[in-house]
Amino acid sequence: MALQQENSAHSPVPAHTPSGSIPVTLHGRELIPNRRIPLDVSWVEDIRVNTSAVERRAASIPARRSVKKDYQAAWLLRAISCMDLTTLSGDDSAERVKRLCAKARRPLQDHLVQALGIEDLHLTTGAVCVYHAFVETAVKALEGSGIRVAAVSTGFPAGLSPLETRVEEIRRSVEAGASEIDIVITRAHVFNGEWNALYDEVAAFKEACGPAHMKAILGTGDLLTLRNVARASWVAMMAGSDFIKTSTGKEAVNATLPVSLVMVRAIREYAERTGMSVGYKPAGGIKTAKQALDWMALMKDELGRPWLEPTLFRYGASSMLGDIERQLEHHVTGRYSATYRHPVA
Ligand SMILES: O=C[C@H](O)COP(=O)(O)O
User: Fold this and answer.
1) 285: Cβ below 6 Å to ligand 1?
2) What is the pLDDT of residues 236-245, one digit of tens each?
3) Ligand 1: does its nearest atom lie under 6 Å from the Cβ of 318?
4) Segment Disordered: which positions (predicted)?
């Protein structure tokens, strides 16, 4: 069962499109990657969010008719390539990280790869995301694969250690070989409207990242209002973040569609205003193939095709790959297998 590759209205995600080959445009305008710009507090203070309209629109996304059959399989393959396959547990070990890296290199079982006819795709996840202690292990395990290693940093998940310690943590992870750094912001700067302090913090983290890409985790479940989510998004983007990310996976509420709608609309308005692109990473509690499709639909509707590339879109997920594999097995065989047959690590 080879997948159809044409780019129809139902399949905006050809499975074999090489990553990064799509020019980043919005409304026909070519965008450049984000870089730090001076903080304009008026942009932040002027933000208003119509919460009930956002909630209504977000609720309509999962209710829509989903893509089916080969098209759905193509979208799910794309979701795998946009995944930061993650382990962030207190009982993480080098062995678990090595198993996770093996899964990142070969995310689908061989019989599925053959049945789908995607041997030439050399499908991998976008990155593996770990604590600093396992960066070197992951770098070694992924050598030659082109899969990037992301490290959570800056006192993850609370982000409350001294600033020098947090900055030093970034430097160490970059030295150890991480090419992506997921930082956490000080949530209190948002509650207190301390926009200059938030901007300076994120800018200092970005500088410490050097050539590594930086994803700014806002901890949206802690931010109380959608307006705060939008305001924190704008400050993080002005301070030079390459991506904005919802959650650590440790808050009581993690990635949700309403929060994501607010964040991706902030990315869109920022691009319209500055001509610069920022990536998006929903993370925490995204566990099913259905959720993967919902988020891709949201990205495509709000930002367009360029935001379905791993250069601009990632899921942070520790267990979603198992469900995607299970759904693809059902697509190929017509039968559902037991969840335990699709371990992630
Ligand atoms: O950044 C990624 C998250 O920590 C993953 O959360 P999850 O375990 O709920 O998938």
Assistant:
1) yes
2) 999 999 999 9
3) yes
4) 1-22
Q: Half-sphere exposure of residue 179, counting CA atoms within 13 Å on the CB side?
A: 13
CA 248 to CA 60: how far, in whole Å?
26
Ligand 1 centre to CA of 250 (Å) is 8
> Which pTM does this prediction carry?
0.94
CA distance 82 to 78: 6
Active site residues: 182, 245, 281
Tell me the CATH number at 115.
3.20.20.70
Give bridge partners of residue 315 from the DSSP assignment: 83
Q: What is the per-residue pLDDT across 112-171, written as a single tens digit (0 to 9) for each?
A: 999 999 999 999 999 999 999 999 999 999 999 999 999 999 999 999 999 999 999 999
Q: Is residue 308 part of a domain?
A: yes
Domain count, the chain: 1
Q: Is 317 in the pocket of ligand 1 (CB under 6 A)?
A: yes
Ligand 1 centroid, distance to 78 Cα (angstroms): 19
SS3 call for 315: strand
Residue 339 lies in a domain: no
Asked if residue 319 has its Cβ within 6 Å of ligand 1, the reply is: yes
Q: Is residue 8 one of the residues assigned to a domain?
A: no
57-70 pLDDT, tens digit each: 999 999 887 788 88
